Amino acid sequence: MALPAIWDAELCAQEIRRVAEKGCHALTFPENPVPLGYPSFHSDYWDPVWRALTDCGTVMNLHIGSSGRLVITAPDAPPDVMITLQPINLVQAAAEAALAAAQQK
Fold first, then answer.
1. 78 against 104, higher pLDDT
2. Going by DSSP bridges, is the β-strand pair 59-63/26-30 parallel, antiparallel, or unpaired?
3. Cα–Cα distance between 76 and 18 in angstroms, integer?
4. Looking at residue 58, what DSSP letter applies?
5. Collapsed DSSP state (helix, strand, coil) of residue 48
6. What are the E-state strand segments in the chain?
7. What pTM, to 2 d.p., does this model score?
8. Cβ partners under 8 Å of residue 7, min gap 6
9. Which residues pair with 28 in a beta bridge?
10. Average pLDDT of the chain to the nearest whole number
11. How would residue 31 be classed by pLDDT, with cut points 50, 70 and 90?
12. pLDDT confidence of 59, banded at 50, 70, 90?
């Protein structure tokens, strides 16, 4: 699994293609780039990434909890609540990524 540069979508796409040539067809990626200061999956910014993933048959694996944003139900909720709700972040991110990729077709 590759860990690509995300600060530049063109460099990320180049890395996807480079590692695919070596036989790597999976990469890890933040579940939501917005809290990290990057454009959303819906912006044109990520178009080179979507094209490279499609062209190379590479899978984008969204790393749960990597956006730095947690679902918090209450300020005094025990940590177990946040841990239990971690999949909510992933479901939101998967929906966004799937819709953004579908818009490219």
1. 78
2. parallel
3. 46
4. P
5. helix
6. 26-30, 59-63
7. 0.74
8. 38
9. 61
10. 86
11. confident
12. very high
